[in-house]
Specification:
This protein is α+β, with helices and mostly antiparallel strands and 554 residues long. 60% of the residues lie in helices and 8% in strands. It has a 7-stranded antiparallel β-sheet with strand order 5-4-1-6-7-8-9, covered by helices on one side. The longest helix is centred in the first third of the chain and has 39 residues.
Length: 554
Amino acid sequence: MALSVESPLMKANLRQSMSWLHTWVGLVAGWVLFFVFATGTPGYFQQEITRWMQPERALVHAEMAQPVPAAQLLTLALDRLEKVAPTAASWRITLPHASLNPRGWQELAIRWEDMPQAGRERGASGNEILDPQTGAVQSHGIEPRGTHGGLGLYRMHYELRYMPFDWAVRIVGLCTMLMLLAIISGVIMHKRIFKDFFTFRPNKGQRSWLDAHNALSVMALPFFLMITYSGLVFFLFLYMPAGRDMLYGTGPMANKTYYDELLDRVHERLPVQRPRADLAALVAQAQSQWGGAGVGSVTLEHRKGEAPVITVAGMHQGSVDFFNPPRLRFDANTAAPLAEELVAGGSARKVQVVTLNLHEGLFADIWGRWLYFLAGLAGCAMIATGMVLWAVKRRRHHLSLAGEYREPLGLRLVETLNVATIAGLPLAIAAYFWANRLLPIGMAGRADWEIHTLFAAWLAALFYALARPLARAWIELCGLACAAYLAVPLLNALTTDRHLGRSLASGDWVFAGFDLTMLALAAVLAWMAVKLRRRLAVTEQGLPAGQALDKEGA
């Protein structure tokens, strides 16, 4: 009997504890997490964003290229490698193939690594793109403008820019762990999670914010669990170094020993030479063994005490093991097949690589990356609705207290940071694209100034939110962000010949997709501004901003 009485009470206490944990860890990490999601989500299209930000760079389509026999390509590449890197520690030839990289045509390229100098782990590396007909080094005409492109946005989501790397990674890791706690506690405290997923009550103030937060949280729950857990795995030994330090010790030399063993870097290498084996025959053998699948690259290395080795690697086939495509190894002198080489790091390394691939969506095709992108935007919306819900609930609580209403300083600070983050950060990202088109092409440090523009615009949004009444700041910053995204395709049309009409007509879906995405984001922000304007119109009737925000559920 005691158990039946205590059990509901224990459940209620557990839900209350989880509610407290969910609320406060979400608030503490919310602004950083919104930045992480807002800058990390474009990373699923970082190559496409970079190409848009370098309109001078030509794209070679598969239908424009004439097929060249593999034997001719390999001969041209070897001739060039013998000339530019005769004593290199490794050679690599990347073969052109339309489906090697589903995001563009892969050109004939060579890459080499020089022998390391005394006291250094790796040698200098170089690479060139070759004309598949003549073997001459290709020139892309006009040198593309300097930009950090999509990679710059992606790296921001864990480097936090302007911060020491170790500090940034630890801050992001702490916030990621708090988000994982918030997700788990949210599931535990939510006894009607699936029912509420199908429930949305518009125009109900705080209730509407809660419904939106619940629906967004459940809609992409598997993605949120995967993205937070895999994000922690990235820098596991930075967050939890005790196991490694107990075995290897601490300090630079211990760290070097650990990574040498993990990545199998303990072998001494010798300079490579042109192989006696017929590379074209080995490529054909690999294609036959893989059922006609294309070959991505051919690598030549020579370890001391062993025969030189040729490694033929296949193309990535959309597997979650993206970094380990099928490989065949051959003796470079006799063409005899060699045993498969174990992946450095063993099973633990494979698990980490698969987890990394899941986090970055490297295995996904175009539709999979769009799904990742939309899930990332849902993460932004989930975090935003949670932060706004906290502020609305606290304001309602303070309004319910007897006596004259006085706006708490802490609440005002939270609400201002909410405006500057939720409305101001999208505006700042749009400014990043504006800077790409407006900064002088030959400007020194141009790529860095694009990023400086992003943070300057974000800081300006914060000052704007501090200076304006809260209600007006929400509307005006959303409106400005809408106008900024709406103007990006216009700026592109005015400053390049890659306008939307031309890209649609030519089937260039990288440029067309980018411009259309900008217009779609502008439409979302316009909808937000209109909804806020309608709900906050009561502020123009003379009510205090705090009461108006509560009355209209903003």
